[in-house]
């Protein structure tokens, strides 16, 4: 418990009012250093050099520690592996330039030093770095569409985000890829901004939901679809040191890959999600 006094008198009531010229003394309890839980997993590294690395984040893994997070995180794993990391985002977010939601899978870049981190952050702002996502949704979109609606915390449910007039600018482009005989659709999404749950919230405004996304409205039993079927499939950036434009493709995880193979013709899927072609499908954006 923190301790403080006013004019050498110990104060216990939080409602105590101070006046001009009061002398205030205080002792703030030192924050307890977080002890990382045991690391009993590994993560696929898609690319690594002395400046950055790109990983394929699995579902269920939180990117960085927070007061509410008890389990090991991606940052914990990076530190455990002895990987050099930038410190520009603070102690809890070593190396993290951008994040992915806990249940979302896919490509994520990590900076190894502060110069690289600053350069990649600028690329996020000027859009020279970006991501293309793949998702399975419960009902086909009518057309390819861009949703440009501001997002903020839902005032009635703190776990959710919503389109709010006073929220932060958010823009997402959606492209139809394939529709199954059961009306499940494989779509691609391009982010122009990086708000929490952005793709899920913008789909919700269209009356569409990602398979496994119980939070925003897709109703299912968890034993049938275990997690949100949203995957950061393609990440592109300009290498901060060489100036080379680079693209990284994160392979789909087995559960999502199996669902797609059972509901779509694989040759059609391979054609639609070809990394060399996928970006060209967003001509309307």
Quick structural summary:
The protein has helices at residues 74-80, 114-126, 198-205, 254-263, 266-272, 275-278, and strands at residues 3-6, 9-10, 24-27, 44-48, 52-57, 105-111, 130-137, 145-148, 151-153, 161-163, 171-179, 185-191, 230-238, 245-249.
CATH class of the largest domain: Alpha Beta
Write the CATH architecture name of the largest domain.
2-Layer Sandwich
- The gross shape turns out to be globular
* C-alpha termini separation: 53 Å
Along the chain, the helix and strand elements come as EEEEEHEHEEEEEEHEEHHH
Tell me the number of strands: 14
Secondary-structure class: alpha+beta
- What is the CATH superfamily of the largest domain? Pseudouridine synthase
CATH topology of the largest domain: Pseudouridine synthase
Strand content: 25-35%
Question: Mean pLDDT score, rounded?
Answer: 89
Tell me about the biggest sheet? 9 strands, mixed
Our Rg estimate from Cα atoms comes to: 22 Å
Q: Count helical runs.
A: 6
Unreliable runs: none
Count of distinct structural domains: 2
Helix content: 10-25%
Task: Explain what this protein looks like in three dimensions.
This protein is of the alpha+beta class. It folds into 2 domains: 1-30, no CATH class; 44-278, Pseudouridine synthase, CATH 3.30.2350.10. 17% of the residues lie in helices and 27% in strands. The chain has 6 helices and 14 strands. Strands 4, 5, 6, 7, 8, 11, 12, 13 and 14 form a 9-stranded mixed sheet that branches. A 3-stranded antiparallel sheet has the order 2-1-3, with no helix packed on it. A hairpin with a 3-residue loop joins strand 4 and strand 5 (52-57). It starts with a strand and ends in a 7-residue tail after the last helix.
């Amino acid at each position: 418990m923190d301790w403080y006094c006013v004019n050498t008198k110990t104060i216990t009531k939080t409602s105590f009012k101070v006046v001009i010229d009061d002398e205030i003394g205080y002792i703030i309890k030192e924050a307890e250093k977080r002890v990382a839980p045991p690391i009993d997993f590994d993560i696929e590294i898609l690319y690594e050099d002395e400046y950055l690395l790109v990983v394929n984040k699995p579902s269920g893994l939180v990117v960085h520690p927070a007061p509410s997070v008890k389990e090991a995180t991606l940052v914990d794993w990076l530190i455990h592996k002895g990987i050099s990391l930038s410190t520009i985002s603070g102690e809890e977010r070593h190396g993290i330039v951008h994040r992915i939601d806990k249940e979302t899978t896919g490509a994520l870049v990590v900076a190894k030093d502060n110069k690289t981190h600053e350069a990649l952050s600028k690329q996020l702002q000027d859009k020279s770095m970006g991501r293309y996502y793949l998702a399975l949704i419960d009902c086909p979109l009518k057309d390819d569409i861009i949703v440009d609606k501001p997002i903020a915390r839902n005032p009635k449910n703190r776990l959710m985000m919503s389109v709010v007039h006073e929220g932060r600018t958010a823009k997402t482009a959606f492209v139809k890829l394939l529709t199954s005989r059961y009306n499940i659709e494989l779509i691609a999404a391009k982010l122009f901004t990086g708000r929490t749950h952005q793709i899920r919230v913008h789909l919700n405004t269209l009356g569409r939901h990602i398979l496994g996304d119980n939070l925003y409205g897709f109703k299912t039993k968890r034993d049938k679809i275990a997690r949100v079927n949203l995957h950061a499939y393609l990440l592109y950036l300009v290498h901060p040191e060489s100036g080379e434009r680079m693209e990284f493709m994160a392979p789909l995880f087995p559960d999502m890959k199996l669902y797609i193979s059972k509901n779509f013709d694989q040759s059609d899927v391979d054609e639609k999600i070809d990394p060399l072609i996928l970006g060209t499908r967003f001509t309307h954006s």
